[in-house]
Amino acid sequence: MKQVEVSVDIARPASEVFDYLNEVSNSPKWLKSAVSCMWTTDPPVRVGSRYEQVAQFMGKEMCTSYDVVAYEPGRLITVKSGEGSSFSLTMTRQVDPIDDDKCRLVATVEIESGQMTPAPMRAMMARNMKRDYRSLKRLLEQG
Predict the structure, then answer these.
(1) Residue 107: Cβ within 10 Å count
(2) Which residue, among 79, 98, 105, 138, has the nearest Cα to 17 in the 3D structure?
(3) Any long-range contacts for 41-50 (C-beta under 8 Å, 24+ apart)?
């Protein structure tokens, strides 16, 4: 697998950041490519929960379903793209407190071998992830 990882410190409590990320309908507010995102399973979020995201990628609209494959409430969520998705990937978002009012978010995307392996594509993904997580930081810190 090919992996891309970004990290950002956010001046908000870890629980607030995780809760914001956990509500996937917030994604279009900070993910530039996201058009819509919604849970397709009933709450609460747990391993086996599923959501769908519609995104613009290279001028095309793509719908991807994601399954929650690991979940630690308030700290970590790992999702894997579902069968029939445009890309086979696994994404982990982990939020850890630095202190009471600041946390570190680490986002890791693993791409199945053979997909997006050229270095320029991984570099583009890293740039986009850095841009999006800076956007999330600004949004959450402005309150």
Answers:
(1) 20
(2) 105
(3) 45/71, 45/77, 46/71, 47/71, 50/82
What the block records as the tokens of 37 is: 């995102």
Q: Can you tell me which residue has the tokens 């970590």? A: 76
Question: ω into residue 44 within 30 of 0, thus cis?
Answer: yes
**Alpha helix stretches (DSSP H) within the chain:** 14-22, 27-30, 119-142
Q: What angle do CA 94, 51, 109 make, to 5 degrees?
A: 40
Residue located via tokens 């747990």: 46
* Amino acid (one-letter) located at 92: T
Which residue from 131, 127, 125, 134 is spatially nearest to 2, judged by alpha carbons? Answer: 125
Q: What is the CA radius of gyration of the chain?
A: 15
Per-residue pLDDT of the chain (143 residues; tens, 9 = 90+): 578 999 999 999 999 999 999 999 999 999 999 999 999 999 999 999 999 999 987 788 988 999 999 999 999 999 999 876 767 889 999 999 999 999 999 999 988 755 555 677 778 889 999 999 999 999 999 97
Q: What is the pLDDT of residue 94?
A: 98
